[in-house]
Amino acid sequence: MNLQKAFDREKENHKNPPFSDDLSNEDVENNLVTTMKRSERYRVLKKNGMSMDSIRLSFNTPAKMKIFTWKGERDTILSPRDSMLYYKGFLRAGFMSMVPQTGEVRAYVGGPNYKHFMYDMVSLGKRQVGSIIKPFLYTVAMQEGLTPCDKVPNIAQTFDVGDGTTWTSRNSTRARSGEMVTLRWGLANSVNNISGWVLKQFKPQAVVDMAKKMGVVSKIAAVPSVFLGTSEITVREMVGAYGTYANKGVYIKPRFISKIEDHKGNLIAQSVPRKREVMDEKTAYLMTNLLQGVVQKGTGVRLRFTYNLYNPMGGKTGTTQNHSDGWFMGITPELVSGVWTGAEDRSIHFEGIRQGQGANMALPIWALYMQKVYADKSIGLTQGDFEKPRGVNINLDCNQVSNENNNNDLNESEDEDFF
């Protein structure tokens, strides 16, 4: 609710609220016409032979209707066109939570209200994922022998795109620019230069291959900007993928039904977890360490100081271009959950990264959910730590290994995904 209020206040003085002011009047009109043509009202009127002019008149004629509000339904009078604009102004969220060891889905929210928002933003809706794709890149690095405390240069990386042009990574801040920094610091603060350096060592196709092994079925282009998360992927796919880290390197496909019984309790059908080993336990453990760094001293740090969640957990924030999509993926040893927050159209978004980043739009939903889960003793989460595999003796205290300067952490500042 507070996020929605902040969004509404920001749009009050816009020329075409809730759209961003970078859209022209013509762009807004084209958007509304497209939305109109997707509606059931339009399909019915068109099927009945009504002309376009008559359909437009119908959409501009006020009528009695019930509308959704955050405080419940309300009777009002609006034209169908105005109701389209009204609903576009709502920020939406998709949320899914599952047990990483079994794939059993424990919570699933496809949108604000099924009656008024009949679209599932967990399994059907695909949006650009931003920096929550970066762990796939770091997984390749850990698998190939790098460690969280290895240092790399925080400098811009330039790539040959292949058509005679180049593309160069950019950071949204100059913090520690030009310094040698650890991979843990780079992921914790979502620094694009560090991801660019890692990508140069292992190539885009390796990132795509890793994502596919971890259950992502949506198309991901093997291009230099792959770590910016310009690919459109579902919440469901991302939660399943992140479950691999908490499940010691074994991917399990999310499942919604464990068994079916008749009214007498006789077993009719039983689902079997579909799983495959993606990485060894060492790689998965190193990744949980990297993701814990995001929460301890990176873009997810408000989980600690705002929501008082101090048990073992890791995560990753994501923010796409123009702040259109905010993401947070969170893992604990017993639950893996993911959140996407945004509007119906990517052209409707916060104007600044302070309000529009994943740490502000999506992370609070994950935090409030986990607070309630831990408070409910009937659920019985142990709040234990991620299990360290036998034979892994790597020192993961990067301050001890490399004298990392804690005072230079970015905390919640996040690199928006420039491309």
What does this structure look like?
- The structure is a single chain.
- The radius of gyration is 23 Å and the shape is globular.
- The longest helix is centred in the C-terminal third of the chain and has 17 residues, at 281-297.
- The chain has 16 helices and 17 strands.
- The protein starts with a helix and ends in a 17-residue tail after the last helix.
- By secondary structure, it is α+β, with helices and mostly antiparallel strands.
- It has 2 domains: 19-88, no CATH class; 92-408, Beta-lactamase, CATH 3.40.710.10.
- Strand 3 and strand 4 (105-109) form a beta hairpin.
- The protein has helices spanning 2-11, 25-37, 40-47, 52-59, 80-88, 134-143, 183-188, 192-202, 204-213, 235-246, 281-297, 302-305, 353-356, 358-361, 363-375, 398-402; strands spanning 63-67, 74-78, 92-98, 105-109, 127-128, 151-153, 158-160, 166-168, 180-182, 232-233, 250-252, 259-261, 267-270, 275-277, 314-319, 325-331, 336-342.
- Helix 6 crosses helix 8, helix 6 crosses helix 9 (204-213) and helix 6 packs across helix 11 (281-297).
- A 5-stranded antiparallel β-sheet has the order 4-3-17-16-15, with helices on both faces. The protein has a two-stranded antiparallel ribbon with strand order 1-2. A two-stranded antiparallel ribbon has the order 5-10.
- Mean pLDDT is 92; it is low at 404-411.
- It is 34% helix and 17% strand.
- It is found in: Membrane.
- Residues 1-15 have a biased composition (Basic and acidic residues).
